[in-house]
Every structure is written in structure tokens, then in C-alpha cells.
Amino acid sequence: MALDSKAGARAAPVITMPDLKVEGLAKAFGAAPAIFSDVSFTVSRGEAVALVGSNGAGKSTLLRCALGLIAPSAGRIELLGAELTGLGGRDMRALRAQTGLVAQKHNLVPRLSVLSNVIHGLLGQQSGPRYWHQALAPRAAREKAMAALEKVSMADFAQRRADRLSGGQSQRVAIARALVASPRLLIADEPTASLDPAAGEEVMALFFSLVRRENVTVIFTSHNMTHALEYGDRILGLGRGRLQLDAPVADLCAAELRKIYD
Amino acid sequence: MTDPGNTAARATPARIERPSALAFLGYGAALLVILWSFRGAGWSGERLMHAPPALADFMTRSWPPATDALGRLGLKMIETLQIAVAGAALGVVLSLPIALLAARGLIAGRAVNTAVRVMLGVMRAVPDIAWALVFVVAVGLGPFAGMLAIVVDTIGFCGRFFADDMEAADKGPAEALTATGARRLDIAASATIPASIPAFISTSLYALEKAVRSSTILGLVGAGGIGIELKVAFDLFDYPTAMTVIGMIAVVVIVVEQLGIYARKKIIGVER
């Protein structure tokens, strides 16, 4: 498959200061051996990077370390130009206000409406009770959330409870929540793993058309080699506790990627 | 290599596993403690043999239940329910912020969590009748003391279980909001509390049932409600009235329990 024929393909990003720089990263839980160690890579502004690897390779842990959600055992992380080690709570929150997370399980609040869930995406920028529920939210926040829902074609479902959506609809809402605050960097951890193939394709196409339009840096994990090759600009392969691969998609094919799983 | 077809060669596991020497000692010790407790509780087979005739005598003297005081007893029962409803409602409302402080990993640090949990433990450890005695001293005789006792008892119960419910809530939505830079209080209010609401409703309904049961006996120590009528009836050997009070308490408690089961099923779709 030629790169220029990809759905939503974009021009190679201009390399500036990296949005994420990871150096010598290692993570071990308790006395257990490290899940991974000596992991180093950078992700440039506007780049879409696929992180692949077998189950238990530490992909999700690595991404959570990158957002400062989990502390690494060793190494350093520079997120959006700021060193995470020793960053205070307020500075960390300010940094995270420019990031977002789309997870495999969608992670919406089940009993709340779709609109409330999307308004929650603004909490990093606007704190307080008015952003806890759509009924209390200021007009601007409601309009912003509705615009985000329009982008994922879910505006008609704004009042529906999140636990009454299909898997694909639910993930669309999670994408709207992640994008409503116009983040600079998004982490998508196996965003289609809980969806059937058709819904997965639809969600991936939608997600990448939006992030490319808004020039958001994306790091995503996937077991789907086609997705990694189709939507990534670059692929990182994690295996046997090390970063085994870091290459542009143009240099790779699915067979080479499968070696990561051996 | 084991022949997969040769299953007859394998020993069949014992139906009951033989306990270890330590486990055997543990079972023996537990049995001794139970027997020792029966002795301490004044177990007497002889007195038990004499109980049925005495009970039959009480039933004979209390039957038929008195109906002449139904109006007065009905008003006292309403007061009992008012004590229970007001106490449980205030207790549930106050439990929420306390539970937020008690829940680990939510808005407060470990030291605050521990201090609040110890306080909740004390509230639960002291029986509601003892709290009623304390509040009778503090605010005087009457239903207000009973209501305050129910409030404290409800906070001890709901505060702990609300905190446990929030700790057990799905961490996914909270993580998604953390990744956007939301504050801890915003995350708790937007993700953790809404996700815990079914458990909160269930716990609150149990608290109301518990409050109704408690409020029926608080009158024994002058803290309002129908309990005082029961005490007076027994003191005056007015067993028909005592039987009426016992019957009313049983009916009200059973009705409230059934309403609780219905409400749980209706509101959160859980029957337990």
C-alpha cells in the first residue's frame, strides 16, 4: 500500500522541539523484574506514532509514564518541553491540560449524559462545580461540547446516558471529550480493541481525520498492523523489555512488524 | 511424557483436604472460644426448659393486643419514623464529604484518610442507644436527642461504606480526567461520585432501614419515639399494650424493608 494513497495521509511533519522526549526509561513494579528498560525515543509536533508490541510488553505502562500518570523507575521524560521529574501538582496539571487520553474501555462516566461527559474534558482548563454536570455548565462550555459532538456525529445523542450507547458511539464520545479542550498531544491506548472490525475502522478513520485536521500529536497503541501502518507516521516496537523498533512507516511492512511479536 | 489417555493411573484427589496441624489447632481454639462464650452468656438448659410455659403465660396475658390506645401509639410511631427519616437523611448528606476525606487516593492524603476512618470506626463502635444517652444529656429528653443519635450512627455506617464504594469505583473515567489536568476534587465530583451513585443509593436505603429499627428503641432511654410506650407498658405489666407496640414495630420495620427492596430494584435495578 503506497503511503500517498492512505486515507487522510498528510505531509511529513516539520521537526521542531519534540512534544515528547523519553530517555533511558525503565519501569518495574515492586521487586518484579522491569517490564521495560532503556527506552528512548522522541515524538515531534504533529506526528502520529504507533506503539506496537505483544500483550504485557508494557505499552500502556509506557504511555501512562509519558503522561506522568505513573512514575517511572528510571529515566527522564520531557513532555511538551517540560521535564516531568519533580514537577509540582499545579505545573503537572497545567501541562496535562494540553494532553488527553483515549482508552480501550472508553472510560466515560456511565450514569451521566453524553454532554456532561464531554464537558468534563474541559476540567483541565476550567475547574469548579459548573463543569461537573451539563445542567450547571456555562453556555460557552455547552456550546464547545456540542461542537465537539458535532465533529464526531454524536450531537443527536447529547442527552443520552453514556451507558446506553453502543461501543462505537461510546468511543466517539470519548474522542469528543479528549478533543474538546483542543489538546496538543493525545494518547490513544488501543482505541479500537473493544470494538468490532467495522466500528474499529470507522472510529480510527474519524479519530485520525480530526487529529490531523487540528495538528494534534498522537501516540497510539494497536495490535492491528494495518492500523499501525495506515495511521502512523512512525512505528515504535516494544518487545523483550526493550525498544526493538523505531522506524518511519515508509520503511516498514506488516511482516516486519509481526517480528515484534515473535 | 504422561499418556493423556492413561487417566486411571492418576490418583483421584481427596474429597476433603486434610487440615494442617496449625489449621487443626485453629479450629480447636475457635470451638473452645465459642464454648467459653456460651458459659459466659449464662447458658442454662434448665432455664430454657422453663421458658416456654412462661412465654405461653405472657402470650395469654397479652392477648388480645390492646386497641384502645391505637391513636396515641400511632402518633408515637409517626414520631419514630420522623426521627428515623430526618436522622438518616441528615446523616447521609453529612456522610458524603466525610467519605470523600476517608477514601484512599481521592482528595485527601493518607494521614487524613486514616484519621477520618478511625473517627468513623468510633462512631460505629458506640451503639446507637449509647449515643442517644449522650444526646439526652446534651440536648435534653425528646425526639431531637434520638434524631442526633441516628445522625451519628448513620454517618458511622454510610461514611465508611460510601468511602469503600468510591475506592472500588472504576478508575478509568478518573484516569481520563486526570490526563486532561483536572483537579482531584473535580475528578471526584465528576467521575467517582456519579459512578458510585448506585452503591450510595443502596447503602442509604440500608441506613434508613437501620434507622427505623434503631428509632423504635431509642425511647427506652428517653430519646423519643415509640420505645417509651414499650417500656411503660412492661413496667406497668400492661402486656396487651406491649403486644400492640411490638406488633406495630414489626409491621413498620417489615414495610420499610420491603419498600427499600422495591426502591433499590426500581432506582438502580438491583435486588439484594
UniProtKB/TrEMBL annotation, chain A:
InterPro entries named in the record: AAA+_ATPase, ABC_transporter-like_ATP-bd, ABC_transporter-like_CS, ABC_transpr_LolD-like, P-loop_NTPase
- Keyword Endoplasmic reticulum (UniProt): no
What enzyme class is recorded for this protein? hydrolase
Q: Which residues form the ABC transporter domain?
A: 20-257
Could you list this entry's UniProt keywords, alphabetically sorted. Answer: ATP-binding, Hydrolase, Nucleotide-binding
Q: Which GO terms describe its cellular component?
A: plasma membrane
Is this entry keyworded Acetylation? no
Entry EC no(s): 3.6.3.27
Q: Which Pfam families match?
A: ABC_tran (PF00005)
GO MF annotation list: ATP binding; ATP hydrolysis activity; transmembrane transporter activity
Name this polypeptide is given: Phosphate-import ATP-binding protein PhnC
Supply the gene name.
phnC_2
Automatic annotation (TrEMBL), chain B:
**Spans through the membrane:** 21-38, 83-108, 129-152, 187-208, 215-234, 240-263
Which terms are listed as keywords in the entry? Cell membrane, Membrane, Transmembrane, Transmembrane helix, Transport
Protein topology in the membrane: Multi-pass membrane protein
Q: Name one GO cellular component term.
A: plasma membrane
Which GO molecular function, any one, fits this protein according to its record?
ABC-type phosphonate transporter activity
Task: Indicate where this protein is primarily found.
Answer: membrane
Classification via Pfam families: BPD_transp_1
Q: Which PROSITE patterns match?
A: ABC_TM1
Q: Where in the cell is it found?
A: Cell membrane
In this chain the ABC transmembrane type-1 domain maps to: 77-260
The family annotation for this protein states: Belongs to the binding-protein-dependent transport system permease family.
Which protein is depicted? Answer: Phosphate-import permease protein PhnE
What would be the name of the gene that encodes this protein? phnE_3
